């Protein structure tokens, strides 16, 4: 959607609140059908960007992070010129709970960047400014100063990958929004990302399945299931939810590649909890029972192979773990869809 001549990428709704806008990755009617926590997490800006072309030599962007009890006080935004990370004078930007304004200056050698991007078939045109919003909490858009224009269609990839999952799919504990496994996988595959991560609340809701199935803008999708309900659901309830979730999506998109995974290596494996393998078998069996050649199961333990890839909470991958997941996931996807 467009606002102030800016494309709000991976945003479906901008709600005016006070001096800024609350940004939601799904429409209101979808939020109404999600579990309560997921409805709130829909406002987390993981995989979301401000995209625009600069007419003036510099612009000022103002953002504000919402107060949070379960996340750090400050968030991290990143600035890119197409596929090129902006220099360290511009990125990263620390976004606080006070209105935070930062300046983006157009590179003097933008024509050279554009030529390099074209000659090397990079994902994005270097003229396209991308502000990657913090992945881990709600970030409100306040304003932009300076002359800008909306992106052109040909400046971004036409192919898109959708990723559904927990806070791990959100990006925790990546060091920044460009380092999440979903974002890195999209980069390696040369596609754009639609992030449907729901921190602490990926409950395979029927409303989420229906919404994902209704969208026609993604070419293939990944689904991470299990970790958010491991401690609160018994295997029988998990099996029922997985079955209805995967069937709803597969029935609508029998011609698209669907990649399903379960819990990445985590504390439950370190403790040899047998329930972990039960959950993994449930996902595998339900994917296989679809009987579709384009529905692929990948064990989470094959994507994150070592406890060394975890942060100290033994649930979320570290920055290195996020990168490992992206490497293995990219390889698995390429085995099926090609380059």
Automatic annotation (TrEMBL):
Q: Which domain of life is it from?
A: Bacteria
Which keywords does UniProt give here?
Hydrolase
InterPro entries reported for this sequence = SGNH_hydro (IPR013830), SGNH_hydro_sf (IPR036514)
Occurrences of domain SGNH hydrolase-type esterase (ranges): 164-323
Does Hydrolase appear among the keywords?
yes
Alphabetized GO MF terms: hydrolase activity
Q: What is this protein called?
A: GDSL-like Lipase/Acylhydrolase family protein
Q: Which organism is it from?
A: Paenibacillus algorifonticola
